[in-house]
Write a structure and sequence with these properties.
Belongs to the RGS7BP/RGS9BP family. The protein has six helices and no strands. By secondary structure, the protein is mostly helical. It is elongated.
């Protein structure tokens, strides 16, 4: 039960972190706005809440001496994935801080990045936050105030990562992966490709068989004609 809860929390954290990265890349672009800055704030706060929940559960389990060896190995694997996800979140938060300083919303004369992307990002944030509609009443200087909060939250995430290393020591190089990198994606693709491949192979085989038969008939006909001509030439001579 605990294992499934940890996996569910980790899966949710991965999705929210990926969503946050997607939105960070639009800062300074043509779709940048006060709504985007507020969505970024809500999304990263959601990610931090999930990170705290993951840390608490995994820390409790990994400190439990009654956990079996197999279960402990699985929780250590989840711990490594969680740590990596948290590092990615911190990197994206720092990137958001840098881009926020470079492209403040209260300076309209500053040219923004022309990314070629347009439109709102509420749909992406809504999927991460598990809500249908996200409406914000953003203040005029939301980006200025938020940058200060973001800087404090980056420090909090850094402190969390440090505390995690102190409480639970799970070196990443000691944890073995259960499957090759990208195996899940490959299995999904190969499953669809294999059926198509089998059909194409069968079609190729049938086509090759017909081609061989036709080639054999033509070769036999040519050989018979050559023999007949040879016999005729001998008789005439």
């Amino acid at each position: 039960m605990m294992k499934e809860e940890c996996k569910a929390l980790l899966d949710a954290l991965n999705k929210v972190t990926a969503c946050y990265r997607h939105m960070v890349l639009t800062i300074g672009g043509t779709s940048d706005s006060q709504n985007l800055r507020e969505e970024l704030k809500k999304t990263r706060q959601k990610a931090q809440e999930l990170a705290v929940a993951n840390r608490n559960k995994l820390t409790t389990v990994l400190k439990d001496k009654t956990v079996s060896k197999e279960d402990k190995a699985e929780f250590e694997r989840l711990w490594v994935i969680f740590s990596t996800c948290l590092e990615i979140l911190e990197i994206d938060m720092r990137r958001a801080l840098e881009l926020g300083h470079e492209f403040p919303l209260n300076v309209p004369k500053k040219h923004l990045i022309q990314t070629g992307m347009s439109g709102g990002t509420s749909g992406v944030a809504a999927r991460a936050m598990s809500v249908q509609n996200m409406k914000y009443e953003a203040e005029h200087n939301i980006d200025v105030v938020d940058l200060k909060d973001l800087e404090n939250e980056i420090n909090q995430v850094g402190e969390m990562m440090y505390e995690m290393e102190m409480k639970v020591n799970v070196p990443q190089w000691t944890v073995e992966a259960k499957q090759d990198p990208g195996a899940e994606l490959k299995s999904t693709v190969s499953a669809g490709a294999s059926s198509i491949g089998m059909i194409s192979v069968e079609e190729n085989k049938s086509f090759c068989d017909i081609s061989k038969v036709l080639a054999g008939i033509i070769f036999s006909a040519v050989l018979i004609i050559a023999i007949v001509l040879a016999v005729c030439v001998v008789k005439l001579s």
